[in-house]
Amino acid sequence: MEDRVVELHNASVSYSGERVATLLNVDLSISHGEMTLVVGPNGAGKTTLLEAINGLLPLTGGTARVFGERMTPSRDDLRCHIAYLPQELFFDPETPFLTQDVVCAARFALIRLFRFPSPADRRYVHEALDAVGMNTAAKRPVGRLSGGQQRKVLLARALAQRARLLLLDEPTVNLDPQAKKEICQLVKQVQSELAATAMVVSHEAEHLLEDANRVVTLDQGRVVSDHAPVGGR
Amino acid sequence: MFGLPWHIVLPTLLGSVLVGLLSSFVGIFVVRMKLSSLGFAMSHAAFAGAALGLLFPLFDPMWMALVFSLVAAFLLGPLADVSRLQTDTILGVLFPVSMALGLIFVHQAPGGAAGGALTLLWGSVLGITMEQVWSLAAVALGLILLMIGWGKGFFALLLDRKLAQASGLPTRWYFYTVLVMTAVVVSISLRITGGLLIYALTVLPSSSAFQWVYDVKKAFLVGPLFGALAAIGGFGLSLGADLPIGSSIAVCAAVVFILSVGLSPKRLRARSAT
């Protein structure tokens, strides 16, 4: 197995019309199984970093390699092994999707054309919902779940997808303290169950700090520190 | 039926039902992906194209409608994707331009084409031949095959485009396919509902469906059912009261929508909870 799961060399991202790069000459290498916390002030480029790694944003300079292969916006074949949890995603109450279908949709890129989800796919979905404690909500509309429950459902997608890399952008944002704690525990559980590599952007990292291998600090698009957490594993 | 022979009534009735089914089917995408303005722009472009077809009657005006509608889709889709202009701004330019072009083409069309021009605007109860019904059925079959083959991707796109893209689905391809589907359905439906009102049959039945169901899979059944009901009701109203068929279908679709909003179990539940 490729030991280096994520490798960035001089990676830069500039949004069109902006003079200052959002990500500037970032060098970063993440090994298999690591949990990396990405911290930094608002506007530091944390979300851009995750979106550059999974190819949602094209690099304007440098290179990104994931699982040993060059990542570009067209690499859907790599992205189907990456679970991405966007920061701003919450489903409104009118969202016409059942919870189990939201989780099942994470597997769709892995299922061939003209094929429907198999019994094995459905089993993955129910095991994933079970693992995050949401099996009883499988047939409920996802928009009717609380913010914390929706985050659990999105983490269940990572499990159902059998993702090898987790990119989680503020998984605890807008949650109450109890829900934050539960989500952090689930992040650890999901990472360990999948034996996956994880990068977590978080302002509220205290619950994850003891399990993280590294803390990468970004400021104004640059990596300003990269070290093991104090008291971490 | 209504004093008309069946060989005239049957194609229009079948055509209306198929238009109701198809328009509300693509309407689920249009409503859920908030593309209503885009659908509106495409129907206006289709009108302009069909009017040009009347001016130069080398082909069936429907083909020109399809070309214009596709051009509008492929101008708007990528522009909305990559340009720094707001979609509203692009639409604000496209609406008056397509209407102006359509009216200029109608104005320049030879005298005998005036009736055809009105058909393009308001629709016609007698505007359909069995050949066109088969075209509608072929489009319906194409959509069914598309959904069987690629339905999973469309389903993920309807949930959330970014999430779908991040999970490894080629969402740009799916998005452009939605635009093409809409363009094809709008163009092929033009003769029955007219360019100005096809939009009603696209948006109203699918919006009505979302008043009743929590599951988008069910919306794909309920929406076309409402669309077919509105089309049949509009067809009857048009023949019975001697009204333009496009307007009659739009009125029936609006009635279905108002009833759905009033009786929606989702809204009733929300009201009783407060």
How is this structure best described in words?
The complex is a heterodimer of chains A (233) and B (274). Chain A has 233 residues and is of the alpha/beta class. Chain A has one domain: Rossmann fold. Helix content of chain A is 29%, strand content 25%. In chain A, α4 packs across α5. The longest helix of chain A is centred in the last third of the chain and has 18 residues. The radius of gyration of chain A is 17 Å and the shape is globular. In chain B, α8 packs across α9. The model of chain B has no long low-confidence stretch (mean pLDDT 86). The longest helix of chain B has 30 residues. Chain B has twelve helices and no strands. Chain B has one domain: ABC transporter involved in vitamin B12 uptake, BtuC (Orthogonal Bundle), CATH 1.10.3470.10. Helix content of chain B is 83%, strand content 0%. Chain B is mainly alpha-helical and 274 residues long.
Concise overview:
The complex is a heterodimer of chains A (233) and B (274). The model of chain A has no long low-confidence stretch (mean pLDDT 90).
The CATH topology of chain B is ABC transporter involved in vitamin B12 uptake, BtuC
Structural class estimated from helices and strands of chain A: alpha/beta
Most strands sheet of chain B: none
The backbone outline of chain B, from C-alpha atoms, is: globular
Q: Outline the biggest β-sheet of chain A.
A: 6 strands, mixed
What's the alpha carbon Rg of chain A, rounded to whole Å? 17 Å
Question: How would you describe this structure in keywords?
Answer:
heterodimer, A: 233 residues, alpha/beta, Rossmann fold, 6-stranded mixed beta sheet, 4-stranded antiparallel beta sheet, 7 helices, 10 strands, 29% helix, globular, B: 274 residues, mainly alpha, ABC transporter involved in vitamin B12 uptake, BtuC, 12 helices, 0% strand
